[in-house]
């Protein structure tokens, strides 16, 4: 073995000699890339979607096979490798019974359909396998001059045959793990490498850990060209049966080589993150401030009578602010958490006051978000807030459970209407289905019904309006009116255009990249809605959240 380093970004390189001037070469490169807030990369993810480790295996004939391992997948490889290493050592240190110490029980085949098995295991599985062992013996012996290490396997086969002939071959009680699939990528096409004939470059990579072998970690990379068909959902289907120009290379790492390689890769990730982290935090802080300022500017221009906000956070460890120090604040009397220094609603209202725009406000937290935030909702009103009430709509009331859901309602001076800010769960959630949450909500809203009173439900309902027999249809069939449908003037109504939490990989139902209406304003009476428009979507005011806003104008 020798090490090679050919360029500054190369982490490590290894060569395994094959005699007569030939060798198999492995190399891995650091192509870690910081999140630049492009292509929906959030800065505190640290890594962009292009952050990866390119790897290459060059075979004896100097033909390369290349692949990319994304950084998140590499982290899984690292974690699994450490566990498998411990198992390897434990297995190696487990003493053999003297009777099972011969090569027949300890030497494992490193290739062919018996790979990972000992000659004893092969014969004990089926005595008829003696023919296969004879064939393997002949093959190994023919290649002995080229591969001297074949001698160990030849001796093991001879020993197993002797023990079997003497009737002494026994099953070992020693627990042995033959192999473990460490990583498999599947087919991954690179569309930027499409040839004129329409065929696209494709790679696949596979890592297996073969216990007990001298080189236990086997890396396989295959490259080929094949037709690639894009589905309506944007998925790329590789037509592997039509592949051409295939190159499949292997590299077998010793335990020492693999441990050193894992150490170098992990060190590269940690060094990168230590450098990228402070930059990312600064970017994230600046972005948050910029978004808040843009949102404030939107409110200054539009000055809606009522504003309903969801996922309004404060850091749970930030300093407390007494209620008497909070201008315009109306506390929900059955809510005990204090307002803290970095409460988002507080900061928005205070910034508006500095600009001469005055809002009354209330805030409620429902749960802990991301382990460190009091996460809830807020209502802002141009008129003084007279009454405030919170309601639990989820089955759980555990503050540490991220699925806990509450709604916050208010009545304002001179208006009998009730305004609710809403953040509901998902239809297909087994623990907290939307249907049960809606049953609770409908029961409490019915108890508040009164002649000439309108109740308004505003917020994130996590329900698609184009899916039958689910949340949106349930709400409408319960007698609630979608203000978007009532509006005389309206736009597309789309409030989410990209993948967001809860709607990745079809979690919420429907194609994740489809434009969606998830945010609504419902009312329980027939109102004359002049207009409904989506705001903070990059067209009507800058984007400030992964959800856009909905603003309606209602005739008095």
Give a brief rundown of this model.
With 556 residues, this protein is of the alpha+beta class. It has 10 helices and 26 strands. Among the domains are: 2-87 and 179-278; 96-165, no CATH class; 424-556, Deoxyribonuclease I, Chain A (4-Layer Sandwich), CATH 3.60.10.10.
Q: How would you sum up this structure, described in words?
A:
The chain has helices at residues 71-93, 103-106, 119-125, 130-142, 150-165, 255-302, 344-354, 434-447, 471-477, 483-486; strands spanning 2-3, 10-19, 22-29, 52-58, 64-70, 179-184, 188-194, 200-210, 217-226, 228-230, 236-238, 244-253, 306-315, 320-321, 339-340, 360-369, 373-381, 385-392, 406-412, 418-423, 455-460, 481-482, 489-490, 519-523, 529-535, 549-554. The chain is an alpha+beta fold and 556 residues long. The protein is elongated, with a radius of gyration of 32 Å. Strand 2 and strand 3 (22-29) form a beta hairpin. The relative contact order is 0.07.
Task: Kindly list the characteristics that best describe this protein.
10 helices, six-stranded mixed β-sheet, alpha+beta, 556 residues, Deoxyribonuclease I, Chain A, elongated, five-stranded antiparallel β-sheet
